[in-house]
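It is worth pausing here to work through a concrete case rather than discussing structure prediction in the abstract. The textbook approach is simple: state the sequence, then state the predicted structure, then interpret. We follow exactly that order.
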Amino acid sequence: MRRDLTGKRAILTGASGGIGRAIAAGLVKAGARVALAGRNADALNQLATDLRATGGNALVVPTDVTKPEDRQQLVDRAVEAFGGLDLLVNNAGIGSHGHFATSTPEIMRQVMEVNFFAPIELTRAAMPDLMNGYQPAVVNLTSMCGRKGMPAWPEYSASKFALVGMSEAWRGEFARFGVDVITLVPGLTNSGFGNHLLRTDGRVEIRFHEGMKPDELAAGVVAAIERNRREVVFGGEARRLLRFNKFFPRLTNWLIARKVKQAYAKA
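Step two, the predicted structure:
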């Protein structure tokens, strides 16, 4: 199936910056009407102004996705403004770069709330309207860490693994409602994500500056939605790692463990 995004009614979380901002521009360019959700109202309003200047249709809905009342308001306002809902793009996320032994239960719960429970419950709230949409789909932005857990990213890896698993379960369940589920698995992206981490004391170096550009990833995201891809891995590093791990899992684990040991030995 080829999904035409012209006139599609979409919700996009985490829209105020980085990857979300680029995806918003890509969706609007493809003809979609987008409800922009995020906590930074000023950034959302500026993005909406920029999108409208190009002829786009954008609705600003300041939202904390961890709050039930905010999630329901987001769905209600999008449906009221657009007359329905066709796409839900779960993009909002948070990370923590630090090793599990020195982490806390509070960090674990905060990451899970934003990266897993929030998109799950937002999807639950949106499903009645998606079921009545045209070529409807739930789009989950996960991570290569959701296919291969990485050291110094234990909470993030766990949250993304959980979202990947729920996506796979949904794909079978939602088929009877005619709602597609698209799982997107990006690798390292130079999106500013590293500037908003809950922790930054992990000793395994992360070269965010060498990652994909947000516009590059966003173009792939829009193409995946249009082509109705079930799951797409983005980024050469992510594709190489996941492919190598598929055929040589023990060697992959040994190499990763060696890298961590070396990082601590240097420290």
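Step three, interpretation. The radius of gyration is 18 Å. The chain has a mean pLDDT of 95.
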